[in-house]
């Protein structure tokens, strides 16, 4: 577990960036600490750390799944992460086109709206 946890901490920083992780750690409480540990070990230390597919592909899959299941709150975070995973804006467009066909146009449309706003925000900060 310790290895996956440490790997997860590193992968989380690689994908989400130091600023995001530092802020999340500063907001950590006793209430959500165990949940954060679970995510660090399972999501970041196991799934994201696997070398079975690239970070770019993982990024696209994550965005597709978030949009397809209507879990829109994390889409901006994962759009920002594309700067670190290598997924391009065109990759995101292609991803959400798949969502439109296989999960529904309204979900893809909302996801694309969030992506557009987040990419605009990123461009302004650059």
TrEMBL record:
Residue spans crossing the bilayer: none
All copies of domain Carboxymuconolactone decarboxylase-like, residue ranges: 35-116
Domain of life: Bacteria
Enzyme class label: lyase
GO molecular function: 4-carboxymuconolactone decarboxylase activity
Assigned EC number: 4.1.1.44
Keywords recorded for this protein, A-Z: Lyase
Protein name: 4-carboxymuconolactone decarboxylase
